[in-house]
From TrEMBL, chains A, B:
The lineage of its organism: Bacteria, Pseudomonadati, Pseudomonadota, Betaproteobacteria, Burkholderiales. This is Homoserine O-succinyltransferase. The keyword Cell membrane does not apply. It comes from Rhodoferax ferrireducens. One of its GO terms (cellular component) is cytoplasm. It is found in: Cytoplasm. It catalyses: L-homoserine + succinyl-CoA = O-succinyl-L-homoserine + CoA. The gene is metXS.
């Protein structure tokens, strides 16, 4: 059965106070829902998105080929998160460039596009905005919140900000905060964007420019960190591009490895060609200010900071049951980081399941079809479903 | 005893044929020597440099404070490579921006600065140029060649290009070629440089500009890969800058963690401040075309390519004795890569020593003072010295 997705939008007139002290006047949230909310409104699952994704989590848009949601392999009829049983909600976060109010929208205070003046939003702010959407949908308690990477951070934050509204939390390929190395990669990406002369201090819309050079570099850096060294070697290795090799073949067709063209600026290796393609594609659709906002939300997230760095103290407020999943070759959000969360939850005697999946794909693995990973999530949702059926 | 270094330069009138098929007409090599060449000319050690270093390997320049060579902790009187016993030579590679002929020099064919027209040079080309310098110095056989990182690649290449001229090879924190991930990081750095509007296709000298934005990004990426995740966390962690914290302190001086300023473009974390500083410093002195050339030399190096990827076949020509050293937290040139070289040499029944040093500093460790590392190199050179004294 094909799942048809229909994007919706809701306007919120009340100002949203933000962690920075600023507040956001009247804003829109784009969202999609799949499946049916049951009569007792207990089967809702909120799915939180990561850096470059959106509310379009599952299904396809009617009449649009290749319009599958970003987690369509995970969510849908008969899939691990089964929309025959659960009412699934995807929300686009504030500050994004995919529909919810963000830097490309008008600032009601000035009548101008926000641009760089869009307030800094944090994971906590996003969760507060998501909670208001649930209020509007009449959902008091979520059967589960689920997310990977930055989406996992939102999931974790849900269990701390609204402990009574979350029964289960699925925190996948995530971390209790970024390491210095993670922040460093974000910082380089941001510097590439803000030092692009087309950025104009974040007000490039008025100048009719787009800081594509910076966005390309940012995306290339991102892609390197999403993949494992192993999978990169397997996919691309040190292979020269076909065109380069063709040039180096002699008249008999055999390869003269010493005679290919040497160049400092041309694309010679396949990995270069892949990265340039990814960078170019991203620069066509992603907003530079959104990139800055979302990477900053990643940097700032640190629920233990208010507890002197003690994660066990910080997670004491959580009362949900947890499933954590990590992937062995993920060096961006390594298994070690998931185990920190597991430990802190166990210190609080919380109910925690943890799966460390042996997958070669690095951080990207959380979006891919590893059978063991899919199986773990499927069984977890089956047990939630059993719980729901068992309750009055 | 303080070692005083004196830079020298030598002109080579004969054209140097390059691996690309091009050749370099009349060129200069900058170099320094330390210690005394013995009567039999058997105690010479060539030290090869990596990406941003030079011929100024050891000692200081007379009257210049803080002018120590880049490997001054390793090389000098009484140091692991003891200049009381060995005659040590540092050479600046072609294409560099520190004295030897490079993109900033005049192209004799055109009378213009080379810029982007400087021919692509490879590790093999550098070794050929170094061999000509040794010819000029009257040195037929080297007691040892030594280098770290890209310098280790030159060392390895010496044993293949001039097997009869090298008795010992010290290959430190190196690899038989770059992985796809290594190439990917180089490619992002290069894209940052060549897409900087001040690059002008590599002919920025004529435009009176310097592509500093690109150089800064390149260096920031480099620095992340030189350090280990652990050492970054230890040095910087998630610490906010003092100024940010000061602002967040309330009247009583206690920290209100919720109230520091939130910003997408300011420097908030100490790691950011460190990276920006490193990037700014580098952009002041390093040449953009040199950066492209040297990273390309890294990408292209692959002695096994001509042997269908079989490193054991490729290293069959080497007859030197080897010391390989790697560092446990080096993820740029990991111990696994050094072990590939060790294995290939053992397949050829070569004399190989290998030390895997448990050091926290990542790739940078090869420049630092780890006592076990220093001890291993010291003993190795002592045994070379004993060999020299034992010979006729």
């Amino acid at each position: 059965m094909q799942l048809i997705a229909t994007p919706e939008s809701m306007f919120f007139a009340d100002a949203l106070p933000l962690q920075s002290g600023a507040s956001l006047r009247g804003y829109d949230l784009s969202f999609e829902t799949y499946g049916q909310l049951n009569a007792s409104k207990t089967n809702a699952v909120l799915v939180c998105h990561a850096l470059n994704a959106s509310h379009h989590v599952a299904g396809s848009y009617a009449g649009q080929a290749h319009s599958e949601g970003w987690w369509d392999n995970m969510i849908g009829p008969g899939k691990p998160l089964d929309t025959e049983k659960f009412f699934v909600i995807g929300v686009n976060n504030l500050g994004s460039c995919f529909g919810s109010t963000g830097p490309m929208h008008l600032n009601p205070d000035t009548g101008q596009v926000y641009g760089a003046d869009f307030p800094v939003v944090t994971v906590e702010d996003w969760v507060n905005a998501q909670a208001r959407l649930l209020d509007a949908l009449g959902i008091q308690t979520l059967a589960a919140v689920m997310g990977g990477s930055l989406g996992g951070m939102q999931t974790l934050s849900w269990t701390l900000q609204y402990p009574n509204r979350v029964r289960h939390a699925l925190v996948i390929a995530s971390a209790p905060n970024l390491t210095a190395e993670n922040i460093a990669f974000n910082e380089v990406a941001r510097r590439a964007i803000v030092t692009d002369p087309d950025f104009h201090g974040g007000h490039f819309y008025q100048h009719g420019t787009v800081p594509k050079r910076g966005l390309r570099i940012a995306r290339m850096i991102g892609h390197i960190t999403y993949l494992s060294d192993d999978v990169m070697n397997e996919k691309f290795g040190r292979q020269l591009r076909d065109a380069v090799l063709a040039q180096a073949r002699d008249a008999s067709g055999s390869l003269d490895v010493g005679s290919y063209k040497y160049s400092t600026q041309d694309v010679e290796f396949q990995i270069e060609s892949y990265l340039r393609y990814q960078g170019d594609k991203f620069a066509e659709y992603f907003d530079a200010n959104t990139y800055l906002l979302i990477t900053r939300a990643l940097d700032y997230f640190d629920p233990a900071r208010a507890y002197g760095g003690d994660l066990s103290l910080a997670l004491g407020r959580a009362s949900a049951k947890f499933l954590l999943v990590s992937f062995t070759t993920d060096w961006r959000f390594s298994p070690k980081r998931s185990r920190e969360i597991v430990k802190a939850l166990l210190d609080n005697k919380r109910d925690v399941s943890y799966a460390e999946i042996d997958a070669p794909h690095g951080h990207d693995a959380f979006l891919l079809d590893d059978p063991r990973y899919m199986g773990v999530v499927r069984s977890y949702f089956e047990s939630i479903s059993d719980e729901l059926e068992g309750q009055p």
